[in-house]
Amino acid sequence: MLWTIIVILFILWLLGFFGSRVIPSFPQTGNAVHVLLVIVVILVILNLLHII
Predict the structure, then answer these.
(1) Number of other CB atoms surrounding residue 16 within 10 Å
(2) Following DSSP, what letter does each residue of the chain receive, concatenated?
(3) What pLDDT does residue 2 have?
(4) Would you say 45 and 15 are in contact if contact means Cβ atoms under 8 Å apart?
(5) Domain count within the chain
(6) Integer CA distances (angstroms), 3 to 6, 10, 33, 35, 49, in order
(7) Cα 45 to Cα 35: distance, rounded to the nearest angstrom
(8) 6: domain range?
(9) Which of 4, 9, 2, 5 is closest to 36 using CA atoms?
(10) What is the pLDDT of residue 28?
């Protein structure tokens, strides 16, 4: 379940980062891209600590 959330957030981050370059009508996300990246990193760290 956690990996699903991580993958979804990573895909949303990619869309926010590269979306306006690929599709010009795609909205600019600004700081939301960085917030998603931080959330993904935190979830990965929490998941790794749970496994160890």
Answers:
(1) 21
(2) -HHHHHHHHHHHHHHHHHHHHH-TTSPP-TTHHHHHHHHHHHHHHHHHHHH-
(3) 73
(4) no
(5) 1
(6) 5, 10, 19, 18, 14
(7) 16
(8) 2-51
(9) 9
(10) 67
Find where tokens 């979306």 sit.
19
What is the amino acid identity at position 16? G
The pLDDT tens digits for 5-52 are 778 878 877 777 777 677 777 666 666 767 777 888 888 888 888 765
- Give the residue carrying structure tokens 């960085």: 34
What local confidence, expressed as pLDDT, does residue 26 receive?
Answer: 67
pTM: 0.53
